[in-house]
Write a structure and sequence with these properties.
The chain is mainly alpha-helical and 399 residues long. The chain has one domain: Up-down Bundle (Growth Hormone, Chain: A), CATH 1.20.1250. It has 17 helices and no strands. It has helices spanning 2-28, 33-42, 45-60, 63-78, 80-87, 92-120, 126-155, 157-176, 196-209, 211-241, 246-290, 293-299, 304-333, 336-367, 370-382, 384-389, 395-398. Helix 2 (33-42) packs antiparallel against helix 10 (211-241), helix 3 (45-60) runs parallel beside helix 6 (92-120) and helix 4 (63-78) packs antiparallel against helix 8. The model is unreliable at 185-193 (pLDDT under 50).
């Protein structure tokens, strides 16, 4: 319960940051679409580097102190934005740096968190546990952007980040109250050595050696590449092209929280009905279909709000369900001694694809209309579905 509460509070703060930073860039610094896309990419670029070594750290060291340290670091670095804004020295460079550093700390927190959970819950309760964690994450998806948008209107965008920093400090306090820790084998050795690249190689090799996990990894890369386009350009679409207010945008994104909660609540039942892999394929297909609501909002601006709401409510709901199945399957199928590095492999692959998608979007919008780029991203995400359809899991894997 303490771990759950800490994750929930930290997740709310992360959504405030993700919502407010691009708003600051657009409203206070008059950032261009390309600069906003680069900002989005920088939030995930450090994850590629962190993913190389964080898995080995998570496998060999106590997870809880890593998570506490990441929370405290994020709080301190985020506070630099309101301090700089109040002093009149805030720049795009500083916003870039804050996005990069908080992204790196968030990556370490995420890898340690997913490696820590199997030490708290038995294997048969992992889907329920992940569902509850994702439900709280979905609630954060709902209230975090809404709170962020509302705070921008009430106290201004830079000061809204003070509440974000406070949430990370509260999360660190809650984690400090947790007394359980995963067993740590400080003498853990592998046949091909240890170290930054050896750990990355071990995680990738273990992921590819398991046929089901290998397909899920490939599908994750494709979806993340598509998702990078949406992350980079979503604020451009809503705030710039559709001229929606920050409060409205926060409220629309917040609807995704409700969808995520519904998806998380449905996860155990759908797992029993279709198996974990079957539930993953079905939910992913529906989520990919609802990505088209975003470019359709530009095609039919009078219906933009309901279209964007449907993408958040239905699309995010089924994507949350799919994510629960992906994490649970990894935790159930992979050996515990390499789980941290397998989690890091997924994190590195996903983050790398998100960064690549964001940077590619930043380049494409120089020569192509934003509408065309978003349409391309929507079609690209659908490619992940047949990759998963081509595999039939064993009863042990799928159930």
């Amino acid at each position: 319960m303490k771990l759950w509460a800490a994750q929930a509070v930290s997740a709310v703060g992360a959504r405030i940051t993700r919502t407010v930073l691009p708003i600051i860039a657009i409203l206070l610094i008059d950032a261009t679409p390309t600069e906003v896309a680069i900002l989005s990419a920088l939030g995930f670029a450090p994850s590629v580097i962190v993913g190389l070594f964080a898995g080995g750290i998570a496998d060999r060291r106590a997870k809880r102190p890593l998570m506490i340290g990441a929370d405290i670091f994020r709080a301190l670095i985020i506070l630099s934005i309101p301090l700089a804004a109040n002093s009149g020295v805030l720049s795009m460079g500083q916003i870039y740096l804050v996005a990069a550093l908080t992204g790196a700390a968030s990556s370490l927190f995420d890898i340690a968190d997913k490696t820590f959970l199997p030490a708290v819950l038995p294997k048969e309760q992992l889907v329920d546990g992940n569902a509850r964690l994702e439900a709280s994450d979905a609630v954060a998806e709902g209230i975090g952007p809404w709170i962020g948008g509302a705070l921008v209107g009430l106290v201004g965008a830079p000061m809204a980040l003070v509440f974000d920093a406070a949430s990370y400090l509260w999360s660190a306090l809650l984690l400090g109250l947790v007394r359980r820790e995963a067993p740590v084998d400080t003498n853990l050795r592998e046949a091909d050595g240890t170290g930054l690249f050896a750990d990355a190689r071990i995680g990738l090799r273990a992921s590819l050696a398991q046929p089901m996990i290998a397909r899920i990894l490939l599908a994750t890369i494709i979806l993340s590449l598509s998702g990078g386009f949406f992350m980079a350009l979503y604020m451009v679409v809503t705030v710039d092209l559709l001229a929606l207010s920050p409060t409205m945008v926060g409220a629309i994104i917040g609807v995704g929280g409700l969808g995520g909660v519904l998806g998380a609540i449905s996860a155990p039942a759908l797992r029993r009905r279709f198996g974990a892999y079957g539930a993953l394929v079905r939910s992913l297909a529906i989520a990919a279909a609802f990505n088209f609501s975003v470019p359709l909002s530009l095609l039919f601006p009078s219906a933009a709000v309901p279209l964007l709401v449907s993408a958040q409510l239905v699309g995010d709901g089924f994507m949350t369900l799919a994510f629960i199945m992906v994490v649970s399957l990894r935790q159930e199928v992979m050996a515990k001694e390499v789980l941290g590095r397998v989690n890091a492999t997924f994190h590195l692959a996903s983050s790398g694809a998100l960064v690549s998608g964001s940077l590619l979007a930043a380049v494409l919008v120089i020569w192509s209309p934003v509408e065309w780029v978003i349409w391309g991203a929507s079609f690209g995400g659908v490619v992940a579905v047949p990759i998963l359809l081509g595999y039939r899991p064993t009863p042990e894997e799928g159930h």
